[in-house]
């Protein structure tokens, strides 16, 4: 039985790195006594697959991993048993059975993510910045200097920004995520600050990932679906 787990990472847990989160869930799965499947060979390991690792310092309401169980269980029971083992700052939001086929390969199909940018009290852009966001987003090209493993090069990130809007005092963005093109929200904020002619001090804003999407479109037509929707509840 292939199962997709959706979880939240909040509070002080945002400072825990991806590898430690993986180890944390391995221990939680054991404590929950879930019938997890193991790989073969001389060094068997749990069959787990995490989607789009989250950067340190970022909270999230839409993190995912897939795991394989040796027998079928009700998805709500899986969620409840695993959530019972969570510490403060971690919540298991849902469990879904994933059928064989395209949906079962969603981790490799991760294509986008929603982010909410919240400014810390006393920080942020000057008055009137929200009215300028549409003009920034409406540009044909948004070029920044982007660091690579070997050098730094100028990159047009506009094709990777799918949506950008203000909601109240917050900024929301839907950007490309995954192995092909992965756009960090901090780079969008850097470009927006340059467009506004301003400079934000370090730690001026908090980033929260809201959801992760897979692209299930065909023939080049983008069709983004939350990873959760590619599975089903079972009783």
From TrEMBL:
Q: Which domain of life does the UniProt lineage start with?
A: Bacteria
Task: Cite the InterPro entries for this sequence.
Answer: DUF2344
Family annotation (Pfam families): DUF2344
Q: Which residues form the DUF2344 domain?
A: 2-185
The protein's name? TIGR03936 family radical SAM-associated protein
Natural source organism: Candidatus Fusicatenibacter merdavium
